[in-house]
Structure formats: structure tokens, C-alpha cells
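Reopening this one. Same input as before:
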Amino acid sequence: MKKSEESVYQSKLSDLRIQLNTIDEDLIKLLISRFSLTDEIGRLKQNSNQQIYDPDRETSIIDNITETIEENHLSRTNLVSLKSCIIEIYREIMNQSKISQSKL
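Same output, byte for byte:
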């Protein structure tokens, strides 16, 4: 790679990483808000003697995620793997929410 190409590459890489850092910060803030809400839901469930795990709710969440992905993913390229990846992330988020709620 020529020196000028290397400079362009490094600049573009740096710009993309800055964008990723911003998205990561936003995701962290949103996850903190989400976990605060799920903890509040957990307290409400405990006070009402309700089960923490609600399979119908989880199915509804996954259905909504799937629909949102399909509506917003303009290119169908890798849609299946993208959907699978995001659903797996959400399953872990929901799992961690249940763990957090059980410790309240």
C-alpha cells in the first residue's frame, strides 16, 4: 500500500471507529435504561406474586424484533444472519434481565 493510500485508509478507519464508539455509548445508555425498567417490572411482579419469566412476553419481543429488522434492513443481503445475531443478543439481554430481577 502506498503512503497516500495508507493515510486514507487510516483516516477512514479512525472515522469509522469514532462512529462505532458513539454507537456503543448510545447502546450502553439504552441498556442501562432498559435494565432499570426491567428491574422495576421485576419489583412489581414480586409485589404481585407473579412469575419473573413470561414466555408469551418473550415471544412477543422476538416477534417485534424480527418485524423491525425486516422493515428496516433495506438490503436483503445477510438478512437471515443479521436477524439471527440480533435475536441472540436480545435473548441474552432478556436472560440477564431475568437474572437481575431474581436478585431483587
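So the earlier flakiness isn't reproducible anymore. For the record, The chain has a mean pLDDT of 93.
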